[in-house]
Specification:
- Helix 3 packs parallel to helix 4, helix 4 runs antiparallel to helix 8 and helix 6 packs across helix 8.
- This protein folds into 2 domains: 138 residues, Rossmann fold (3-Layer(aba) Sandwich); 155 residues, Dihydrodipicolinate Reductase, domain 2.
- It has 316 residues and is of the alpha/beta class.
- The model has no long low-confidence stretch (mean pLDDT 93).
- The N and C termini lie far apart (70 Å).
Length: 316
């Protein structure tokens, strides 16, 4: 009888709003041991450690030598230093988006992970949204894309502008489906409640000919996350929040000169927990030593495009 491998030893650094969910997801995964949680707010770390029967730490370096992989869910400005230190210790890393505060920091992490042969995954959660994943086999040659991502104002996330806070989700998705280099950028932004742009609108033109219009706002009255995709014979609407897609197809058989025959379909695609799927993908990558769905290099591409947009922003 073959002995079962020891549980994978994991930790979570930063157990605020999002880090708490990482902790929760790890504790329900098979063959995983949550070694500890880290937060500079010691009472918060102790409370969560008690709830999930693990250890609490204030200094992330206390996890060195104890864990094989780690989630990092701290403010963006800290991503680079903490992820760098874990990678240098031979620990695989899942870091929340954006990868780092700057492209230069991100490139350093990607290069370090490659040299150390470590897994570096970036938490672009929409890639695991069941609505987006249901487009497999339907989405072929996008020609025009519209994205709208708006939300009410919350203080969390305002350490960066709206492009790196919200729009970067759509930049990552668009790059993953268009698979072409941006050739032109028009960008407009307005600060409203912070010193950084809180509303931004961008038009991207890609070398493939595809055009993408993207709007992001963190000062809206309600939350909405939608993407519309036009390709030669199909119009697709993805509602991330409602886990629903709508498909309009041009069917063959219309007489010459007449209006095309159209078919309409709506699908609800629930049942998947995007964060749990992301955690599972990370653990799979760690165990099999294969690339995650959103690698560090892909996270870097989205960040570098965000930086180009920020540099192009026209602010009235």
């Amino acid at each position: 009888m073959t002995a079962r491998a020891a549980p994978l030893r994991v930790g979570v650094v930063g157990v605020g709003h999002l880090g708490r969910f990482h902790v929760q997801k790890y504790t329900v995964q098979p063959d995983v041991s949550l070694v500890g949680v880290v937060d500079v707010d010691q009472p918060r770390a102790v409370e969560l450690a008690s709830q999930y029967q693990t250890q609490a730490f204030v200094d992330y370096r206390d996890l060195f030598g104890r864990v094989e992989c780690v989630s990092i869910a701290v403010p963006t400005q800290l991503h680079h230093a903490i992820a760098r230190d874990f990678l240098a210790q031979g620990v695989d890393v899942l870091v929340e988006k954006p990868l780092t505060a700057t492209g230069a920091e991100g490139r350093e992490l990607v290069e370090l992970a490659a040299r150390a042969r470590r897994i570096l995954q970036v938490g672009h959660l929409e890639r695991f949204n069941p609505a987006l994943r249901s487009l497999s086999g339907i989405l072929t040659t996008p020609r025009f894309i519209e994205c709208q991502r708006v939300a009410p104002f919350v203080e969390r996330g305002t350490d960066v502008d709206v492009v790196r806070d919200l729009m970067i989700h759509d930049l990552d998705v668009i790059l993953s489906v268009v698979r072409s280099e941006p050739s032109a950028i028009e960008a407009f932004g307005v600060p409203v409640l912070t010193s950084e742009p809180d509303i931004a609108h961008v038009r991207l033109r890609f070398a493939s000919g595809c055009i993408a219009n993207i709007t992001a706002s963190r000062v809206a009255l309600k939350r909405e996350r939608k993407m519309r995709i036009f390709q030669p014979d199909t119009y697709l609407v993805v509602d991330y929040g409602e886990h629903r897609i709508r498909i309009c197809r041009r069917e063959p058989g219309a007489a010459s000169g007449s209006l095309p025959n159209l078919s309409f379909e709506e699908r609800e695609v629930g049942g998947e927990d995007a964060l749990e799927e992301e955690i599972r993908d990370f653990l799979r990558a760690v165990r099999t030593r294969t690339a995650p769905v959103v690698s560090g290099r892909e996270g870097l591409q989205a960040l570098e495009l965000a930086e180009q947009i920020i540099a192009s922003l026209e602010i009235p």
